[in-house]
C-alpha cells in the first residue's frame, strides 16, 4: 500500500505538464538533456510546505491515507542549496543544478503503516520519471545527479526478506565462526585460465579456490582460519538453499571479500529490517531456520520481493530493462541478478519474446556495491549514470565521455527513445578516485 501510494503521489506531482517527452533526433542518436524537449511546470503548486500540503490533500485515490509535507525548499543558488543539504543532512548532492523544488511527503495508511517520499522537481522537466535503485527510500545524491537528465528519481529494494537474513549468516564477531575479510582474500588464490594476468577477477565463477590453504595447523596459528571459520567461509561463498536445494539466496562471489566486514555478521546494523518490519525481535544468526524464512516470504511486507518474472506487460508498453551489477558486490551478491535474468528469460520464452531486445544484464568485474572497487583490484568500474555519480561525486567528472556507451542512463534513454539497443558498454576508472578528473583506462563490457 505504502509503495503503491508513493508511486501514485509522485506521478500526480509530476503531472503538471500535459505533453510527454519525445526524442526529436534520428533513431539511434542520443537525446541529451540540452537537446531534448522540456515542458514548464505551469500548473505546479507553490514550492512551500503550505502550498504542497494543500496539493497533496486533494490527491485522488488516497483510500483513507493521510499525507503530510514536513519541509519544502526552492533551490536556485549555492546558498539555498547549502540550506537544503544542511537541513536534510545530505552527505552527497550534485552542485551546479538548475532551479528545483525540493521537498518530502510522509504518508500513513489506514493500517498504520508509514512511509516517506522525497522529491526534486525541476521548473522545466521532460515529463517522465526516472527509476533509480537506492537500497531503500530515496537517495538525495542520486536524485540530484539525475537533474542533468531532467528526470525525478525513486526506487524499491528487491528480495528484502532473503537478503536481510542472509547477511546474518556470518554470525557475531564474538562467535568462533566469525571470519575477518583480511584473512579471506581469495584474489591471491584465483588461478588465471588465460595468459593475461592482472589484479582484476573477471570471471569469479571460474576461479578454483582452495580454502585449505587458509587453515590453521600446529605450525600455523596466526593469520589463518580455524575449522568453524572455514565452515562459515563455505556458507558465505555457496548459495543458501533448503534441504530440497531450492534457492533462498545466492552466495557471495570471489573478489567481494574486502567489504565483508560491513556486510555480514554485524547484528545491530542487519537486524533493523528483521525486527521492525518483519516483527522478529531479538533475532540472532542461531535463530535462522527454513521455517522462519518461509514465514518472512509469506509476510513479504509491501510486496517488496521481486518474484514475478513475467515482464511481458512492461515490454509490451515499450519498456526496456538495462541491468548492471558489480561482481565484487557483497551487499547484494551478483548471483541474485543472474538468477533474476534467467527467470525473466524463461518467462519471456514462454510468451515468444526475444529477451535481448528488451532486457540486458551487464556484470562489471571488480565493481563493488553500485560504486567503487577494492584497492587490491583497481578495476574499471565507472559507467556513469545518476546512481554512481550521485553516490561517488558531488559533480560529474569533466573528462568522462558523455555518450550512450559510457553513460548507463544515456544508454537507457537511447534504447527507449531512439530504438538503439546497446551491444556493449565501456567502463572506466580514474588515476585517483579521490580526485576523479583523469581517466586511467577503458574496458568494453558485453551483456
TrEMBL record:
Which residues are the signal sequence here? 1-19
Q: What is its EC number?
A: 3.1.1.-
Q: Which keywords belong to this entry?
A: Disulfide bond, Hydrolase, Serine esterase, Signal
Q: What class of enzyme is it?
A: hydrolase
Q: Kindly list the GO molecular function terms attached to this UniProt entry.
A: carboxylic ester hydrolase activity
By sequence similarity, the record places it as follows: Belongs to the tannase family.
Q: Which PANTHER family is this protein grouped with?
A: CARBOXYLIC ESTER HYDROLASE, FERULOYL ESTERASE B-RELATED
How is this protein named in the record? Carboxylic ester hydrolase
**Organism per entry:** Aspergillus kawachii
Amino acid at each position: 500500500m505504502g509503495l503503491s501510494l508513493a508511486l501514485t503521489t509522485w506521478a500526480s506531482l509530476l503531472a503538471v505538464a500535459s505533453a510527454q517527452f519525445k526524442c526529436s533526433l534520428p533513431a539511434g542518436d542520443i537525446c541529451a538533456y540540452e537537446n531534448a524537449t522540456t515542458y514548464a511546470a505551469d500548473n505546479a503548486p507553490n514550492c512551500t510546505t503550505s502550498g504542497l500540503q494543500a496539493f497533496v490533500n486533494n490527491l485522488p485515490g488516497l483510500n483513507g491515507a493521510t499525507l503530510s509535507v514536513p519541509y519544502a525548499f526552492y533551490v536556485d543558488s549555492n546558498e539555498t542549496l547549502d540550506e537544503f543539504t544542511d537541513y536534510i543532512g545530505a552527505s552527497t548532492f550534485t552542485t551546479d543544478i538548475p532551479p528545483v523544488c525540493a521537498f518530502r511527503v510522509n504518508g500513513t495508511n489506514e493500517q498504520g503503516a508509514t512511509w516517506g517520499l522525497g522529491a526534486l522537481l525541476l521548473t522545466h522537466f521532460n515529463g517522465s520519471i526516472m527509476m533509480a535503485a537506492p537500497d531503500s527510500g530515496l537517495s538525495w545524491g542520486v536524485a540530484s545527479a539525475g537533474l542533468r537528465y531532467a528526470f525525478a528519481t525513486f526506487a524499491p529494494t528487491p528480495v528484502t526478506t532473503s537478503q536481510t537474513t542472509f547477511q546474518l549468516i556470518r554470525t557475531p564477531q564474538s562467535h568462533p565462526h566469525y571470519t575477518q575479510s583480511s584473512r579471506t582474500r581469495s584474489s591471491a588464490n584465483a588461478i588465471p585460465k588465460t595468459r593475461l594476468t592482472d589484479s582484476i577477477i573477471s570471471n569469479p565463477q571460474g576461479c578454483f579456490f582452495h580454502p585449505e590453504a587458509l587453515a590453521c595447523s600446529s605450525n600455523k596459528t596466526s593469520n589463518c582460519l580455524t575449522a568453524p571459520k572455514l565452515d562459515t567461509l563455505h556458507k558465505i561463498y555457496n548459495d543458501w538453499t533448503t534441504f530440497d536445494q531450492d534457492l533462498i539466496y545466492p552466495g557471495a562471489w570471489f573478489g567481494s571479500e574486502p567489504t565483508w566486514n560491513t556486510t555480514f555478521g554485524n547484528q545491530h546494523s542487519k537486524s533493523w529490517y528483521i525486527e521492525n518490519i518483519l516483527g522478529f525481535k531479538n533475532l540472532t544468526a542461531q535463530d535462522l531456520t527454513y521455517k522462519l524464512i518461509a514465514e518472512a516470504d509469506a509476510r513479504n511486507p509491501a510486496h517488496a520481493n521481486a518474484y514475478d518474472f513475467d515482464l511481458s506487460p512492461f515490454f509490451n508498453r515499450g519498456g526496456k530493462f538495462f541491468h548492471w551489477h558489480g561482481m565484487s558486490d557483497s551487499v547484494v551478491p551478483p548471483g541474485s541478478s543472474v538468477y533474476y535474468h534467467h527467470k525473466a528469460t524463461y518467462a519471456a520464452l514462454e510468451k515468444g519474446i526475444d529477451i535481448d531486445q528488451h532486457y540486458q544484464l551487464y556484470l562489471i568485474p571488480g565493481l563493488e556495491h553500485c560504486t567503487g572497487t577494492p584497492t587490491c583490484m583497481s578495476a574499471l568500474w565507472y559507467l556513469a549514470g545518476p546512481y554512481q555519480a550521485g553516490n561517488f561525486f558531488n559533480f560529474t567528472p569533466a573528462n568522462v565521455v558523455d555518450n550512450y556507451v559510457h553513460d548507463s542512463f544515456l544508454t537507457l534513454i537511447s534504447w527507449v527513445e531512439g530504438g538503439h539497443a546497446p551491444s556493449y558498454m565501456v567502463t572506466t576508472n580514474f588515476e585517483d578516485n579521490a580526485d576523479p578528473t583523469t581517466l586511467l583506462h577503458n574496458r568494453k563490457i558485453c551483456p
